[in-house]
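Consider the tokenized backbone below.
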């Protein structure tokens, strides 16, 4: 059971002096924290374009052909003047510059210092919405270090942002990371006069003698899994989580909100140059019969929405599995596993606020994947509610960061769906193990029979060449109102 008190950590004089020096370079305006709270280290938000607030200009844009005032959204991505998507998109190779992102500060958001209110303050990204909504008398300094276009490899050891990651100590971290480059592998864009974009998984339909056919969902998720493995996403994420935990941080991983990019696969490859992506058809309206080859049987029908959300769910499942692995690793290494937590947006609600809806939570001017300002409001709510639930922080209508928080008592035992764990698997086979409990908390797995089976970081159980009984142990540390789960399961290998 996780029912421990969470103490507020302080920083030494040297680190404090550095924070004070950096604040002088930050956004102009009144400080978000009271003077008496100066010793409280900033809560650091990091990761990719979702956390960076891509689509909305930052305080200091630094890339060629980009000039916009803070918080203003860039034009339609088929726009061919300055501030077009061709200017705003991160380079396919090299280090991202964070352009057209709400936290941009000359491509080095970690130099901006804590968020401060004022006429020039960024206020779109969910981190800044939390900063703005805090109780002024009980507010934590907030910094947003995310980099649009960044991958787990770039934050891991040897990557261009590894120094920033390793410098984060004795504080709280909120992050999104893992979507790049997986979802981009499904993108396909073809517009007259506009460069073609075609990812490795972008052929989601195929043309036969009798017309177009959609590939099956397992084929789509299989490609997502293949791209995940090829980029060693689980390995890099686990290394990042371990680094943050070893440096005495609390870590909140935010899984990705549900969205269907207009440019997912080859359903809608021809863009409307005049009206932009907002003129695209809704994803659920794009449907075809399913068959994986000319000699394969027909297996009902599917839609662009079904494929896109399945690929995204497969990615979110991998992220949850690695969070569970990190919790299990923390427990085995004397670190309180409840310091590693996961927040999940209300995916059902997001499904009803897509780009083709009037009250969209998705930014329309891009490829229908990033959150709009209204979407960032939802993500801010997801983070504060979860942080309150498990750590006793950011509770109330005006989120409060308190000096001596008390996590709610653990009362709800966690459990696994018995049918989700196989009773037997074939020799040299691979199966997906459950990545969350029935209460939606991440699950980590370890093999107790390594000569017979092993568990990958992504939560996959792999049988070796030996027959026998494979024992795997499941572990989940929910924290807050949820009791931890510890369970050993025997699986027969044939």
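A designed sequence for it:
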């Amino acid at each position: 059971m996780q029912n421990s008190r969470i103490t507020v950590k302080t920083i030494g004089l040297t680190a404090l002096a550095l924070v004070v020096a950096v604040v002088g370079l930050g956004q102009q305006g009144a400080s978000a924290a009271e003077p008496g709270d100066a010793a409280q280290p900033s809560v650091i938000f990091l990761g990719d374009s979702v956390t960076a607030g891509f689509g909305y200009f930052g305080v200091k844009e630094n890339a060629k052909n980009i000039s916009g005032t803070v918080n203003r959204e860039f034009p339609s991505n088929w726009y061919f003047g300055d501030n077009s998507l061709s200017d705003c998109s991160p380079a396919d190779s090299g280090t991202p510059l964070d352009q057209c992102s709400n936290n941009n500060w000359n491509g080095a958001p970690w130099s901006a210092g804590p968020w401060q209110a004022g006429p020039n303050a960024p206020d779109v990204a969910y981190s800044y919405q939390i900063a703005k909504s805090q109780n002024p008398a009980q507010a934590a300094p907030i910094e947003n270090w995310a980099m649009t276009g960044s991958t787990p490899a770039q934050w891991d050891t040897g990557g261009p942002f590894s120094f920033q990651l390793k410098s984060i100590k004795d504080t709280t971290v909120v992050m999104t990371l893992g979507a790049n480059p997986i979802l981009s592998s499904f993108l396909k864009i073809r517009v007259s006069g506009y460069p073609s974009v075609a990812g490795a998984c972008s052929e989601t339909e195929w043309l036969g003698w009798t017309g177009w056919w959609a590939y099956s969902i397992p084929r789509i998720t299989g490609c997502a899994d293949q791209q995940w493995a090829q980029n060693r996403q689980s390995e890099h994420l686990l290394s990042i989580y371990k680094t943050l935990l070893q440096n005495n941080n609390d870590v909140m991983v935010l899984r990705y909100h549900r969205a269907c990019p207009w440019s997912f696969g080859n359903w809608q490859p021809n863009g409307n140059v005049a009206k932009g992506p907002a003129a695209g058809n809704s994803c659920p309206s794009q449907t075809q019969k399913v068959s994986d080859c000319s000699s394969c049987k027909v297996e009902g029908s599917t839609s662009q929405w079904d494929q896109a959300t399945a690929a995204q769910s497969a990615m979110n499942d991998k992220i949850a599995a690695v969070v569970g692995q990190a919790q299990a690793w923390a427990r085995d290494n004397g670190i309180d596993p409840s310091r590693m937590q996961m927040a999940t947006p209300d995916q059902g609600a997001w499904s009803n606020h897509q780009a083709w809806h009037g009250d969209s939570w998705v930014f329309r001017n891009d490829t229908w994947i990033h959150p709009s300002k209204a979407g960032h409001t939802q993500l801010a709510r997801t983070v504060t509610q979860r942080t309150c639930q498990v750590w006793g922080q950011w509770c109330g209508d005006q989120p409060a960061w308190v000096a001596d928080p008390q996590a709610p008592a653990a009362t709800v035992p966690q459990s696994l769906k018995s049918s989700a764990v196989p009773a037997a698997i074939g020799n040299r086979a691979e199966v997906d193990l459950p990545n969350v409990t029935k209460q939606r908390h991440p699950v980590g797995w370890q093999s107790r029979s390594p000569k017979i089976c092993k568990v990958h970081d992504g939560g996959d159980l792999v049988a070796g060449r030996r027959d026998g009984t494979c024992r795997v142990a499941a572990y989940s540390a929910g924290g807050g109102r949820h009791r931890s789960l510890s369970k050993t399961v025997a699986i027969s290998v044939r």
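Residues 224 and 315 are 7 Å apart (CA to CA).
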